[in-house]
Amino acid sequence: MNANEVVIRAREAKTVIAAFNIPFLPMVKPVIEAIVDEKSIAMIQVARLEWEKFQSQSLEAVAEEYTKYAKTKFTLLHLDHVPVIDEDNVMVDYMPVMKRAIKAGYQSVMLDGSRLPLNENIEATRRVSDLAHSCGLAVEAELGCVSGHESGGIGMSYEELFCTKKGFTDISEAERFAEQSGCDWLSVAVGSVHGAIAKNIRKDKKPEALLDIAHIVALRDAVGGMPLVLHGGTGIKQRYILEAIENGISKINVGTEIRQTYEHAIEEKSGDIEYARHQVYLRTRWVLSEFLKTSGNQKKLYG
């Protein structure tokens, strides 16, 4: 499958492509099995922070594990968050990472320039888009600030964040970004938050998030039909998720939901990886069938 075509088809059919993050390498197998058993199309993805701060080892290790179990009618491999400035405010040499992903067989990549000024984000995304498109890969970018990965979490109460719309994607900036950056999909900030990654709070339950549906609609119209992506999919009230899918969200990232499932299972059974894998399998099926309602969307998208 072509990743860009899949996401565009999802937008047109008003379904969503779930993208599951892999912070621990043994999670790849049960997530793929769950996707196939739900007859859904979904992505396996890994972010830079997951090989830097968790145990996915490297983007190459995830690609190798993915290749063992991939089912090409149901699964895709995506490189998530490669930041220009990371959660610790360190500059990242991102182009070599992109080249590694292309060599390893990723079908789409994401550059996160959201901590840059608009002009610099556009320039960096354009650079990655030119490279990726020359190799047939789709590019995801981010505009606005989906909080949570920083060492202090979101830095305020969730209620304050949503009411003030702190970090929300600006409509006029989104229009310009879509025209000039060359990206294929745009990750937007509309109320969701990332799961915490700092060791002292990574086990905490995420706040129950809301989504500003009117803001999603305005962004969808501003970017001329470009598929929108929602990060921080865990913990959002379901009715907002389903309404967002109806209104332009075509890819949604799920990380904390299955990561904490794996971590809790490992603790519960003293490091029993097969037990943890089974719990991840069950939880992934629940995400697809009960929460996102995407069971069977492979047939819906491809007949």
Shape: globular
Q: Sheet with the most strands?
A: 8 strands, parallel, barrel
How many domains?
1
Annotation field: number of helices: 13
Helicity, as a percent range? 40-55%
Q: What percentage of the residues does DSSP assign to strands (E)? A: 5-15%
C-alpha termini separation: 14 Å
Going across the biggest sheet, name each strand in turn. Answer: 1-2-3-4-5-6-7-8
What would the average pLDDT be, to the nearest integer? 92
Uncertain stretches: none
Describe this structure in words.
By secondary structure, this protein is of the alpha/beta class. It has one domain (3-302): Aldolase class I (TIM Barrel). 46% of the residues lie in helices and 14% in strands. The protein is built from 13 helices and eight strands. It has helices at residues 3-13, 28-37, 48-52, 59-69, 94-104, 118-134, 158-164, 171-180, 213-222, 238-246, 256-268, 273-291, 297-302, and strands at 17-21, 42-46, 75-83, 108-112, 138-143, 185-188, 228-230, 249-254. An eight-stranded parallel beta barrel has the order 1-2-3-4-5-6-7-8, surrounded by nine helices. Helix 2 packs across helix 4 (59-69) and helix 8 packs parallel to helix 9 (213-222). The longest helix is centred in the last third of the chain and has 19 residues, at 273-291. The radius of gyration is 17 Å and the shape is globular. The two termini are 14 Å apart. The model has no long low-confidence stretch (mean pLDDT 92).
